[in-house]
Amino acid sequence: MSAVCQVTGREPGYGKRVSHSHRRTSRRWEPNLQTRRYWVPSERRWVRLRVSTKGMKTIEKRGIDAVVAELRAKGVRC
């Protein structure tokens, strides 16, 4: 399963880990993803989403109905 937020589209960031001797190796910063169930009152059912914590704030602000409608318009299965 890829590390991508379904609401915001956030993906891992890539960079280099630098040791004390200044050797560089690759690393990645993972987004803070959580699997959450949201009750969608208009459909009278639960929807399971894989969202970042920023995505959770977006859902709280705009409402789950608006977010789910936008995801369906984009073609995301939820």
Automatic annotation (TrEMBL):
The residue ranges flagged as biased composition, category Basic residues, are: 17-26
Give positions of region: Disordered. Answer: 1-26
Instruction: Write one Pfam family the protein is assigned to.
Output: Ribosomal_L28
Q: Which domain of life is it from?
A: Bacteria
Record key words, sorted: Ribonucleoprotein, Ribosomal protein
Q: Report the Gene3D superfamilies cross-referenced here.
A: Ribosomal protein L28/L24
Q: Which InterPro entries match?
A: Ribosomal_bL28 (IPR026569), Ribosomal_bL28/bL31-like_sf (IPR034704), Ribosomal_bL28_bact-type (IPR001383), Ribosomal_bL28_sf (IPR037147)
Q: Which GO terms describe its cellular component?
A: ribosome
Q: Does the keyword Chloroplast apply?
A: no
User: What's this protein's family per the entry?
Assistant: Belongs to the bacterial ribosomal protein bL28 family.
Q: Which NCBIfam families match?
A: L28
Q: What is this protein called?
A: Large ribosomal subunit protein bL28
* Organism of this sequence: Haloechinothrix salitolerans
Instruction: Tell me the name of the encoding gene.
Output: rpmB
